[in-house]
């Protein structure tokens, strides 16, 4: 069968396409792992999943889907909160295994495969001194700046002694100036920012307490500010849960609800 795309018959000029790459179908043992996304609220059963190993695999999958009139989804990190990267009875082209990296040190341009995730990108860049991971930064600090021994202070004064307001202030003002931030930023704000970011990254109240060394939850709750992104994500998920349970949030009660 020849599919129709953009009003024109598609595929007639290139012959029947064949799926290539790492192919997983419902009867294959790895199908469940291959089909599920991060949010298992959306549980779709695609006809076939193609883990592309190169660009031609993507071209073949796209052509095959059009020629056979099969719904197509592209998937990368599987994090879509709306479940958009999967589809029942369709073809999922998964690009997460396209992990090539080419770093041109002279022009400082990195060209990466579309499946490279953030951690892999930063770690690869860090190996060539183009980025510093948090673990590298902390390890480097402990090795070069902290006091020796298990009980040595992590932060010390310029001569290795006790860190005090009097011997820290000049460095702090200089660092603030170099970073281009105003005097309104206090040192303690960094701790607040760090833990707010940890909260946004998904840390639980207990994990936030551990990170800042609090024994009670009151202070940790302060870091759990609502950001507009998270607010939207939570609202979307609640809406999906209500729909899944049979109650459509847009339903005014006059009619029954249906999951689409
Ligand atoms: C735990 C968690 C934390 C998150 N934190 C943040 C955050 O801090 N900031 C933020 O902005 N977002 C955040 N998100 C949202 C997330 O970044 C988005 O949902 C994003 O779209 C996920 O991309 P993905 O490749 O992982 O997802 P996928 O499910 O693979 O894809 C997402 C969408 O992009 C399409 N797509 C994927 N690859 C391609 C491609 N190569 N070409 C064309 N279309 C493509 C898919 O079809 C789908 O519609 C978070 C999500 C989760 C689950």
Can you characterise this structure?
- The structure is a single chain.
- The protein is an alpha/beta fold.
- Among the domains are: 92 residues, 2-Layer Sandwich (Uridine Diphospho-n-acetylenolpyruvylglucosamine Reductase, domain 2); 61 residues, no CATH class.
- 38% of the residues lie in helices and 11% in strands.
- It has 9 helices and 8 strands.
- It has a 4-stranded mixed sheet with strand order 3-4-6-5. A two-stranded antiparallel sheet has the order 1-2.
- A hairpin with a 4-residue loop joins strand 7 and strand 8.
- Helix 6 packs antiparallel against helix 7 and helix 7 packs across helix 8.
- It is elongated.
- The two termini are 27 Å apart.
- Flavin-adenine dinucleotide binds next to strand 5.
Number of helices: 9
Unique bound compounds: flavin-adenine dinucleotide
CATH class of the domain at 3-94: Alpha Beta
**Strand content bin:** 5-15%
What general outline do the C-alpha atoms trace? elongated
